[in-house]
Design a protein that fits this description.
With about 220 residues, this protein is of the alpha/beta class. The chain contains 6 helices and 11 strands. The longest helix is centred in the middle third of the chain and has 12 residues. Bound molecules: NADP nicotinamide-adenine-dinucleotide phosphate. NADP nicotinamide-adenine-dinucleotide phosphate (NAP) binds next to β1, β2, β3, α4 and α6. The site of NADP nicotinamide-adenine-dinucleotide phosphate has 31 residues, from β1, β2, β3, α4 and α6.
């Protein structure tokens, strides 16, 4: 029965054209150069944490999201969904921000990263790691918000796009407003899982679609 289909979801958006560079600063590059941003404790954290963001994820029927550093499934319609969602802005002069953990960054095919048309931010504690100039590398969630606060005129929405380690921290942030979840009805052999959706409720759900007998749907969750 299609209606017994669990909520979880699959991610999308890795299949995108080659990235161009932009003039965004790299926080990691600044740190390496000795130009550290002001420490978070010097900031109004309440203000910083007021930047709202959404999560975008795709999960299988058991909450699985990844296997050996990659996606366990191929679902082109979900990739399109991800791309459309994260690219869409109302203001033509603004982009959206996509925030990801270093392992998710590495999971993107080299030719397709940074994700084009979006401001790419990577969380990593490794200050020696190199990223393209257009990518901001930040060493903590606090620094992420600090960085975003410094460039609010440039972006419209912020999406946290994985992986599991980053999702688990993002869900703890009060400014995490919505989860865009693609739920895939089948169980895959996963080694990485989305945290519990306890205390989140479904506010919208697409019909159930079918891709060669792989059923999936798009859902939106907000906090209960
Ligand atoms: N199905 C989906 O929707 C979806 C979406 C995205 C990813 N995935 C899958 O998920 C898997 C990757 O997830 P993962 O949990 O292993 O890794 P991840 O969350 O992508 O990245 C973890 C890394 O991010 C950095 N990091 C995490 N929290 C940080 C913080 N607070 N401050 C600074 N850096 C921080 C660390 O990098 P350093 O080690 O460099 O310090 C850490 O090792 C892959 O299989 C991928 O394909 C699935």
């Amino acid at each position: 029965m299609r209606t017994s289909f669990i909520t979880f979801f699959q991610e999308g958006g890795w299949a995108v054209p080659r990235a161009q560079t932009s003039s965004l600063p790299s926080v990691a590059a600044e740190l390496r150069a000795g130009h550290s941003p002001a420490p978070l404790e010097d900031m109004d954290y309440e203000t910083a944490s007021n930047i709202p963001f959404d999560i975008v994820v795709a999960v299988d029927s058991e909450g699985g999201i990844g296997k050996r550093g990659t996606l366990p499934w191929h679902l082109p319609e979900d990739l399109k969904h991800f791309k459309k969602l994260t690219l869409a802005t109302t203001a033509a002069d603004k982009k959206n921000v996509v925030v990801m953990g270093r392992k998710t960054w590495q999971s993107l095919p080299e030719a397709f990263r940074p994700l084009p048309g979006r401001i790419n931010v990577v969380l990593t504690r490794d200050k020696t790691r190199e990223f393209p100039l257009s990518v901001a590398a930040v060493p903590s969630f606090g620094t992420l918000f600090e960085h975003l606060m410094s460039m609010t005129a440039q972006f419209e929405k912020v999406f946290v796009i994985g992986g599991a380690e980053v999702f688990s921290q993002a869900l703890l942030q009060p400014n995490c407003q919505k989860i865009h979840l693609t739920g895939i009805s089948r169980k895959f052999d996963c080694d990485t899982f989305f945290p519990s959706l306890e205390s989140w409720k479904v506010v919208s759900q697409s019909p159930v679609f079918d891709d060669h007998s792989l059923e999936y749907c798009f859902k939106e969750y907000v906090r209960e």
